[in-house]
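Self-study notes.
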Amino acid sequence: MPTLEIRDLHVSVETKEGPKPILRGVDLTIASGETHAIMGPNGSGKSTLASALAGHPKYTVTSGTVTLDGEDLLAMTVDQRARAGLFLAMQYPVEVTGVSVANFLRTAKTAIDGTAPALRTWGKEVKGAMENLRMDPAFAERSVNEGFSGGEKKRHEILQMELFKPRFAILDETDSGLDVDALRIVSEGVNRAKENTEVGILLITHYTRILRYIKPDFVHVFVDGRIAEEGGSELADRLEEEGYDKYVGASATATA
């Protein structure tokens, strides 16, 4: 069974004042077909974890290991991580002027698989995935994310996830900026990808609303660069009622 294993991960970020430690020893194992939700207050390190796993150059792993099926993920370049089966749906998807969605998707699929998809079957697959996500076919000819609304950008991220069929997907605040209808459609796309490919999912979010549609197998509370508590979906329900105050307070006391 494919497994993404994180052990005692420490990560720092470059600032004007020099390196700043963000992650302070993260342990997490995600198996194929599992959905893990990471929840926590702003500034707790959730997005840093996503960026470090994807290989963002701004973040430096100072110690710890990350393996994908026993292979050293941290030794891989960004493109090698993608070909190994790691996918990141970004919190703030970037615009790529002059590159159409259609060209981007086919070029990325070719790079990941090592061979170009057959045009006839690929066209049908893209069209079907766009229809499922309620995306206008005209989007295929537009520049990547240029002029897209927040909801359209997030649908495009999940379109990629469905088409690229990664082994593990990191969804960094995919619910951010979505209205109720867009949240439901995006969540349906995530669930559909999981049903079709048994992708392992690391879902990063502040709020429980997306967890009404995407049911987590495990919930992890992230505070001050560490996992403060773990549990099942019932933990998310408790967080909805109680918030993060007790974790933040305990972390501040421990630091002092």
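Second protein, same conventions, sequence then structure:
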Amino acid sequence: MQEASLPRAKKRFGQNFLVQPQMVQRIIAAIAPQTEDLVVEIGPGRGALTRGLLQRLSRLDVVELDRELLAGLRALDGSGALRVHHADALSFDFAALAGGREQVLRVVGNLPYNIATPLIFHLLDQADALRDMHFMLQKEVVERIVAAPGSKAYGRLSVMIQASCAVESLFTVAPGNFFPVPKVDSAFLRLIPHRPARVPEALRPAFAQVVAMAFAQRRKTIANNLRGIVAADTLRSLAIDPGCRAETLDQTAFLRLAEAFLHQGSLP
């Protein structure tokens, strides 16, 4: 089909369609799908990645919100291997596709930049059903997700996602691989949920609140950001320097803080 006859990208959906076949093959090689894998693609768009995945899989589920793209996606397969779900990925029940099995779903997608972060957290709420996730995201967001303590990019997003997953930035993707051409570079990210979970379920609300409070004002010390919640002496007892900033603390430090708050009943 000619470009003019294809469905147009819509700004409200944050669509930038993947169009370069070489990049599609590189992405598929990184995912390394096996025939019986249960793969779910989010935001398949015009189906560039979908076509490649269908060549490798006996079944593929795709979740697409744009009604105008549904007919084109369904036309990609006549064997019944492709199941198209017209739905908003932010509220979609991905775990239901696993049929009650754990650690089986492989989720992939070229994610719209405007929903990428909330969508990842929505998926992490269903992490028991997930084997891994592979996403195309804005490069800056990927850099924040994979950042190490002490770096400028390290922050709340880094801590929260790394608490749930092993993270790896696989490669950078130039704007020319998409249509319309975005104004920023992208990167391809791999997320593998920790087994067992690093943050026990009972500790997760405390952990999330501690992390949010600690990074509330990045220029302030950890003692200042947690003022009225935890005393400097308590921080010292947890082997945390009251004069440090949140971006210097690793996962274990935040876990110690969350455990102390939970046991003390100190969270507001």
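Instructor comment on the second fold: Confidence is low (pLDDT under 50) at residues 1-5.
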